[in-house]
Structure to design on (425 residues):
C-alpha cells in the first residue's frame, strides 16, 4: 500500500513540474517561412551594404531575406502570455539545411553547377544590412569575372526554397 | 611565492627577537608613518603603445612601517598604498595597436571585453627586511638604513575585440593584455622589488631617500584568431623592462 502511495505521489509531483510548452518558445504571433530572396552584398568596408556594381572577390557575401507569412490551421488557439525569465527563440531558418551552388565556372578546378557550400560561412547577424536576415561570406576567392549563385534551403531530404542571385562582377 | 616570503619574514623576526637573551629587554618597536614620492628612471617598456597603456612609474605612496630593533639592528615590515597616474592611452587606440597583418586597415566591429583607465589607480604595496640604527654626534639625529624586498600589485589591462579587415570578409578575434601572466583567471599580478632606504630621523621627524629596483617585468601579449576557422593567425609577447625608481619620503616616527 505504501509503495502505491509513493508512486502516486511521485506521479503527481512530476505532472506538476512538467512545463507547459505552449507559448514558451513560440513567437508572439507565429509566422512561417514561405520563401527566400538572395542578394549580392559588398562586405569590403566597415559594414556590409547591398551591391549594385562590382565587388572585390575577397569581400563577397550572399544576403538572404526571409519571406514569411502567417499560416493558419483549424487547430490553432490563442497562446498564453510570454512568461518572465530567460527565453530562447528559435530562428525561423534553423531547421533548414542551406546549400550554395555556383551557376558559373567558379575557378579552374570548380565548374558550373558545383556545390560550393563549404566555401561559405555564416556571418554574425548583428552586422547585416537592414532587412537582411542571414548572410554568408565567401572565404575562397573565385576567378575574377561574372558570377551568380543559387541558394537552396532543404528541409530534411526535400528542397523547400531556392533563389538565384543576380549576376555580379567579382574583380 | 607570497607564502615563502611571509615564512622567511617570520623566521627572521623570530630570530631577531630571540637572538640574545641579554639583549631581549633592549628590543623596541616603533612605528613610522610616511609619504613617499617615487620617480621612474626607466619606462615599463621600450614599445610606445605598450608603455602608453600603463601608468607611468611615478608612484605616490602612503605607508606605515613597524620597526623592531635592538640597539643597532632589527627588522621592519611596512604596508602601504601606491597611487599611480592615468595611463596616456585611456581607451584602446586601434591605430597604434598591432593587427593581424601589418599595413592592412582594420575596423573595430565589436568590443567583447574592455578595461579603460579613466582615472588614477591605487596599488597595494608591502615590504619587509632589515633595518639598522646609526647614532650620530648630534643628540637627536639618527640615521636608519633599510634594505628590503616587497611587492606591488598591478592589475591586468585586457581588451578583447573583433576586427574586420578592409577589402575582405576576414574577421579576427583579437586579445590585447598588458601585464600578462600565465594565470588566465586572475585580474591582478604582483611586481616584486628590492629597495634600499636611508632615513634621517630628527626627534620624531623623518626624511628619507630611497631607491627601488623592480625585478619583475610587465609583459604585453597580443593574439589574433581567425573567426571563421579558429586558427591563431598571430600571437606574440613583448617583455618589459626592469624598472628602477628614485624616491623622497617624509614622515613621523612614534
Amino acid at each position: 500500500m505504501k509503495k502505491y502511495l509513493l508512486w502516486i505521489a511521485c506521479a503527481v509531483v512530476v505532472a506538476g513540474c512538467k512545463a507547459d510548452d505552449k507559448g514558451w518558445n513560440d513567437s508572439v504571433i507565429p509566422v512561417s517561412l514561405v520563401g527566400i530572396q538572395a542578394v549580392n552584398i559588398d562586405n569590403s568596408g566597415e559594414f556590409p551594404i547591398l551591391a549594385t556594381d562590382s565587388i572585390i572577390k575577397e569581400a563577397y557575401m550572399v544576403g538572404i531575406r526571409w519571406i514569411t507569412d502567417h499560416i493558419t490551421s483549424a487547430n490553432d488557439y490563442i497562446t498564453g502570455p510570454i512568461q518572465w525569465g530567460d527565453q530562447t527563440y528559435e530562428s525561423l531558418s534553423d531547421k533548414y539545411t542551406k546549400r550554395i551552388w555556383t551557376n558559373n565556372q567558379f575557378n579552374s578546378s570548380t565548374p558550373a553547377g558545383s556545390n560550393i557550400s563549404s566555401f561559405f560561412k555564416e556571418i554574425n547577424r548583428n552586422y547585416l544590412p537592414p532587412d537582411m536576415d542571414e548572410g554568408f561570406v565567401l572565404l575562397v576567392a573565385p576567378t575574377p569575372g561574372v558570377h551568380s549563385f543559387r541558394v537552396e534551403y532543404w528541409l530534411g531530404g526535400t528542397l523547400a526554397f531556392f533563389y538565384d542571385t543576380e549576376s555580379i562582377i567579382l574583380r | 611565492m607570497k607564502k615563502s616570503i611571509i615564512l622567511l619574514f617570520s623566521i627572521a623576526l623570530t630570530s631577531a627577537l630571540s637572538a640574545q637573551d641579554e639583549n631581549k629587554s633592549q628590543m623596541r618597536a616603533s612605528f613610522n608613518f610616511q609619504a613617499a614620492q617615487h620617480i621612474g628612471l626607466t619606462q615599463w617598456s621600450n614599445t610606445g603603445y605598450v608603455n602608453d597603456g600603463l601608468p607611468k612609474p611615478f608612484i605616490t605612496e602612503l605607508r606605515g612601517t613597524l620597526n623592531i630593533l635592538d640597539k643597532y639592528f632589527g627588522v621592519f615590515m611596512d604596508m602601504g598604498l601606491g597611487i599611480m597616474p592615468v595611463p596616456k592611452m585611456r581607451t584602446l587606440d586601434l591605430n597604434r595597436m598591432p593587427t593581424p597583418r601589418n599595413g592592412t586597415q582594420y575596423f573595430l566591429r565589436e568590443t567583447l571585453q574592455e578595461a579603460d583607465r579613466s582615472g588614477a589607480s591605487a596599488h597595494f604595496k608591502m615590504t619587509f627586511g632589515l633595518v639598522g640604527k646609526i647614532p650620530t654626534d648630534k643628540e637627536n639625529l639618527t640615521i636608519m638604513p633599510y634594505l628590503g624586498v616587497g611587492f606591488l600589485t598591478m592589475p591586468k589591462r585586457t581588451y578583447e575585440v573583433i576586427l574586420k579587415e578592409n577589402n575582405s570578409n576576414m574577421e579576427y578575434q583579437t586579445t590585447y593584455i598588458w601585464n600578462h601572466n600565465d594565470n588566465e583567471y586572475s585580474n591582478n599580478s604582483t611586481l616584486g622589488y628590492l629597495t634600499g632606504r636611508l632615513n634621517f630621523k630628527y626627534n620624531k621627524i623623518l626624511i628619507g631617500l630611497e631607491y627601488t629596483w623592480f625585478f619583475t617585468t610587465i609583459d604585453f601579449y597580443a593574439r589574433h584568431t581567425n573567426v571563421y576557422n579558429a586558427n591563431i593567425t598571430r600571437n606574440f609577447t613583448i617583455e618589459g623592462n626592469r624598472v628602477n625608481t628614485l624616491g623622497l619620503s617624509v614622515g613621523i616616527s612614534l
